[in-house]
Amino acid sequence: MDLYTSMDQKATATIRGLIMDGTRQANSGHPGGAMSSTDMAYILFKYHLRYDPDHAQWINRDRFVLSAGHESMLLYSLLHLQGRLSMEELKKFRQLHSLTPGHPEHGLTPGVDATTGPLGQGFGMAVGMAIAEAALSAQLGNDIINHYTYALAGDGDLQEPVALGAAATAGHQGLGKLIVFYDKNNAQISGNTDRADSTNMALVFKGFGWQVLEIDGHNHVQINEAIEQAKTDNNKPTLIIGHTVMAKGAAHVEGDHNTHGSPLKEEEIEATKEKLGLSVNKKFSVSDDVYLHFQSGQSERRKEVTTWNQKVETKSKEDEVFARNMDNILQNHQFSALTTVDFPAGEKMATRNAFGKVLAHMAQQSNFLIGGSADLEPSNQTKEFADLVGEFTKDDRSGRNIAFAVREFPMATMINGITLHGGLKAFGATFLVFSDYAKAAMRLSALQELPVLYVYTHDSFYVGEDGPTHEPIEQLAGLRAIPNHIVFRPCDARETAVAMQLSMEIKDKPVSLALTRQSLPTLDTEDLYEKVKKGAYVLTGEEFDRPDVLLIATGSEVHVALETAQQLSDLKVRVVSMPSMELFEQQPQEYKDRVLPPKATYRVSIEAGTTFGWGKYVANGWSFGIDHFGLSAPAGDLEKEFGFTADHISPLVRERMPR
Fold first, then answer.
1. Which of 51, 361, 417, 514 is the most exposed place for a label (fewest CB within 10 A)?
2. How many Å apart are CA 494 and CA 496, to the nearest integer?
């Protein structure tokens, strides 16, 4: 590919000018790394990146993830040159309600493919996008889905172990259409990187099974050739290590680590602009020839999109199944119609087993349900799914079970990336206690409004013999604290089935399922879908307008509450199942008052986890839970030890009743 040397130099100088002006005007931001990465990002965006100039969400576009999200002013400058962002938005960098926040936000800024900033996670999301590309290509055809995923990472990204876990998966899976630029400028916020790290990343990534290319990250010819070479290896992802200089082009502070997180001073910006051949007295300035040069390939990009649309139209006419799948993907409604399993009342079953059966049932209805377990398939009950859909491997992209290995945090970032790509429903499974490993990525799921499904089994001290290290106590409260996130803790197989159905229908937030290891009776509850959809409902005692005591429970403790109510038969007792606090909070006040009557102030919550968070529901009552770590013993022994029996709880309810 021929480069236009003089205009390329002018364009990169212009981008550096925008970076300096944006961070200076905001009096906030990170110019140094953005300036060091400018050349690699520019050559990619100008000469290689495939996109639709008119529709940022074209599904067959190349993806770009700025894993080094603090370099956001670089990405915004490139999006401005593409025509996606106005100059006014660049001037409002980091200001209230702008499209140019401090770190890129998916869903806010056109052309931003992922919300990044927490280092390492962008890398993992890029791996997930590459997985999605390979999986969708296998399902829809290489003529329909065939694109690259690019990411730009810095030293901080690779210092976060989550990136290395995702990189190991990418190498193992042979994701040859994943290309990552590593801006190795050897400087970070506290000083030079050699203060803390001497890892040979080239050797590490070669060990992961990556193709590794090392170049001068400011040499446009070398950058272009490295991208071309990366594309020739379809069996290995590529790491392009660009040796760069922090704040490249700056007049006096090139290489200074202090430029990482501090805007350049006005006099330094003026001197740098003079050095780069830019107008010293103009801010946020882009000449017409730079716009024309940068956008000169857009007519070809439009032709490519038109050709692609024609292929989709022709293939849709010839293949009804393809047409239906493609329409569902583009309209994002292919999972809402999935049916669930109706379990018979009276049957005893662990809710994790019920989940496994529903997952397998749904997998037979859609080829676009994909995910896996962190090396816990038999325990998480994802094995039936795996056996049905086959393994996703570098030799067979049609399989839909992903072996994530023991990598909960990388797994969560990858399923975020799969979901961001579009067209697939992604899930990841592990034990509830290990949700702590995934929490940072779950936060980004919620922030990006991604309908990711997190499956957490072994949801309480009933794990038993594995002991306190594996018995979740505070995890439910932690999950419930995440905004824009739905947590289900179903009480039986039927509530689990409905929770799964709802998780497929929810399109703008992640869902977590907390599921039991132990078997529970399946209740005979009518209109269960509508009840679970509201988050909480009355199981027994609806006839009492003002019950003497109101028992609220989730999961396995719903059955304890029912048994407790039987032992309090001389009292007016209402039992409420609350599978989802979040859905309950979304209901009209009239419904909430119907389930939890304001006059019924003596309430007791029962849950095998910390009592934290239950205060808003128990009014003048109290919470029965476990505010200490567990023990190693058979589950039945622990149940008695910790008092999670009707024989223990019912006398307490009587003793503490207001007189």
1. 361
2. 5
